[in-house]
Structure formats: structure tokens, C-alpha cells
Amino acid sequence: MATQLVVIGNGMAGARAVEEILARGGGDLFEITMIGEEPHGNYNRAMLGHVLSGQADDADIFLNALPWYRENNITLYSGVRVDRIDKFSRHVFAADGRVVPYDILIIATGSRPFLPHISGLYSPSGSVRQGVFTFGCLEDARKIIRFARQENHRRAVVMGDGLPGLEAARGLQARGLDVAMVHPASRATAVLGSARVTGMSLRDQPDLDCDMVIITAGSRPNVAPAVVSGLAVERGIVVDDHLRVLDEDDIYAVGECAQHRGEVYGTVAPLWEQAAVLADHVTGFDTSSQYLGSPVPEWAPGPLVACVTGIGVNPVR
Ligand SMILES: Cc1cc2nc3c(=O)[nH]c(=O)nc-3n(C[C@H](O)[C@H](O)[C@H](O)COP(=O)(O)OP(=O)(O)OC[C@H]3O[C@@H](n4cnc5c(N)ncnc54)[C@H](O)[C@@H]3O)c2cc1C
Q1: DSSP bridge partners of 221
Q2: Do both 40 and 171 map to the same domain?
Q3: Domain for residue 161, yes or no?
Q4: Residue 148 is part of which domain span?
Q5: Proportion of the chain above pLDDT 70, given as a percent
Q6: 8 Cβ inside 6 Å of ligand 1
Q7: CA distances from 287 to 89, 241, 247, 290 (A)
């Protein structure tokens, strides 16, 4: 029986790792299974701002649409979340009851938007209230667009900075909304309004009126399945210079969920480099290959505010 290679997470790092593995002859070495929580193929997350602004359609941003998986003999379970891994029997357990055996496992679960501790974010049922959004995936972009299209929703507050914040602000502005950015996100103290969102209160500043709030206050590595499965996790899943998880022979991690030499990355370039090294080792193509880290881009407030004012968004400082 062929060696079973299983990838948890069908995002940019997981799919890129598989592309690199295939480029090194992995299609002949492995039976590949990918399990992803999102209900479709892999898309370019960095293009979500273009979807939000209307410059791109959903279909334009796919890097690996469903035929790609079939053409490469990859079994894809989409819309399926993995809950835990049994590293002793080498099985992956999914929320839908599916149990998938592996010989080699790659964890590429990315990160989740961080929701800060401010009041007014949640409905009484415990879910994020209507009018408050995160901006981390295609479904988030679709929800924001649906809400922003309603006639009475004219003002938005984007809470936080970084690429997703700037792209959310730009996208909503392109749809004709008045946008204010709150930077840093810790300036915000509460989302206001009871039946509907009416504004945001700020530390030492007058309240801002708005109909919707987009929270882009950073993200946190998505390590839940690794934690409950007893893998080495600090801020992210701890990997060595081969992207192998600390103390594990057959488990690798790549992308925003991985912590390498103390660093967790939040942009695409590092995960491209990681995926190539991982593929070198998994396939045996180049066992001397090493990942030694990537430069970390600076999101300094100075250039950020200049950039924000440059697009006409009103920064709250
Ligand atoms: C709005 C936005 C704009 C961005 N713009 C840029 C940019 O301009 N330039 C740039 O370099 N970077 C940008 N980034 C960052 C870039 O998109 C990320 O660095 C990259 O997507 C990380 O890839 P990843 O595979 O580690 O994580 P992701 O792409 O997030 O993929 C992780 C996948 O794993 C799935 N998953 C998570 N947990 C499970 C589970 N338990 N079981 C199954 N599946 C699971 C998730 O649903 C997701 O599909 C942007 C990000 C956002 C959100």
C-alpha cells in the first residue's frame, strides 16, 4: 500500500506544500489526502480585499480549484474540521466522525482572527453579534459585502491595522461607505447599540457613529488540534529547520500555525519558503535542505497612517 500523506488545512500553506511535494515526484510516492474546514478549494487570501472592493469575483481568486485535486489524484475532504490526532496509532479524527490514517502528517491550520476583550461584541447567545465581522476568510468577505449592500449601512469602523485592516477599509470605501480606522485596536472600548450596532466608544476620544464594525486586531495561530493531541505548542506548533514538529518523526507543520526559532509569520513569502524545505524532506529530494527563517515585515504606525490617509480613510489616532 502506498504511503499515506495527510494534510490538515487546505489553505495557502497546505496547498503550496502539496504543490512542492508533487513537483518533487510526490505523486508517485504518496496517496495524498487533504482535509480543510472551508467548503471549497484553496484561494489566495491576500486577494480578499479585492473581493471586498468588487475588483475581483470569488472565482478569480482560486489558486487550486476543485479540478486540480482530481487531476493530481488528491482526495479532498472540504468543509471538514479535524479535531484531534492520535500520534501513536497515526490517525486523524474529524468533527464529522471521519477517521483518516496517515504515515506522514502535515499540519497547515493557519491562524484565526483575534477578538479583543471589549464589551458589546457578542449577542446573548454567545455568537459575534450582527453588524460585527472578522476578515480572515472568503466567507467573512461575503458576509461583510451582504451587510454593506443594505441601504441603511453607510458607516463602518475598522478596528486595527495590518494588511487585513487596510484592505477591509479600502474595500468598504470602494463600496461607498464612510470608513474610520481605529489604530491601535486597543483604543476601542465597546461596540455600541442594542438591537443594532450604532457606534464604537474609544478611550479618550469622542464616540464614533457606525453601522458595522470590522475587527482586524491581529490573528492567533490555529493550534487547537495540536494542543489536544499533545504536540509541542508554544505560540505556534514548534518546528525545527526541516519543519518537523518537535519530538515527532512523522508530523510536520507549515504556515501561520508553525513556530520556527521563536517566530510565527503572518505573510505569504515565509510559508512559500517553508513549503519548499518541507517538500525536500518529505520526499527525500534534498535532505540537506534547511529553513533558517524569513525576514519579518514591519507594520510601523508611521507608514501605516500615511498609507491610510493616502486612501482617504479617516484614521483615529
Ligand atoms: C484579508 C487578508 C489579507 C491578506 N493580505 C496579505 C498580503 O497582501 N500579503 C501577504 O503576504 N499576506 C497577506 N495575508 C496573509 C496570508 O493570507 C497568510 O499569511 C496565509 O494565508 C497563511 O497561510 P496558511 O495556510 O498558514 O493559513 P490559511 O491560509 O489561513 O489556511 C489555513 C486553512 O486551514 C483550515 N483549518 C484550520 N483549522 C482546521 C482544522 N482543525 N481542520 C481542517 N482545516 C482547518 C482553515 O479553514 C484554512 O482554510 C492576508 C490575510 C488576510 C486574512
Answers
A1: 111
A2: no
A3: yes
A4: 115-217+299-315
A5: 93
A6: yes
A7: 26, 11, 18, 8
- Alpha carbon of 11 to ligand 1 centroid (Å): 6
Asked if 266 and 176 sit in the same domain, the reply is no
Q: Is 13 in the pocket of ligand 1 (CB under 6 A)?
A: yes
CA–CA gap between residue 109 and residue 257 (Å, rounded): 6
Nearest ligand 1 atom to alpha carbon 268: 11
The answer to whether position 250 is within a domain reads yes
Sheet holding 199-202, edge to edge: 188-192, 199-202, 205-209
Q: Select from 173, 170, 217, 220 the least CA-distant residue to 191.
A: 217
pLDDT tens per residue, range 249-261: 999 999 999 999 9
Contacts of residue 19, Cβ cutoff 8 Å, sequence gap at least 6: 64, 275
Q: Is residue 292, in this structure, part of any structural domain at all? A: no
Domain identity same for 198 and 248: no
182 and 44 in a common domain: no
Q: What is the CATH number of the domain that holds 176?
A: 3.50.50.60
Q: 139 CA distance to ligand 1 centroid (A)?
A: 13
Instruction: Answer whether 18 contacts ligand 1 (Cβ < 6 A).
Output: no
Distance of CA 46 from the midpoint of ligand 1 (Å): 9
Contacts of 153 (CB under 8 A, 6+ apart): 147, 177, 211, 212
Q: Where are the alpha helices (DSSP H) in the chain?
A: 12-23, 26-29, 48-53, 66-71, 138-148, 162-174, 224-228, 268-283, 301-310
Average pLDDT over residues 27-33: 98
Q: How confident is the model at residue 297 (pLDDT cuts 50, 70, 90)?
A: low
Q: Which atom of ligand 1 is nearest to the CA of 225?
A: 41
**Is the Cβ atom of 36 under 6 angstroms away from ligand 1?**
yes
Q: Are 196 and 309 part of one and the same domain?
A: yes
Average pLDDT, the chain: 92
- Counting every residue written for the chain, the total comes to 317
Distance in Å, CA 207 to ligand 1 centroid = 33
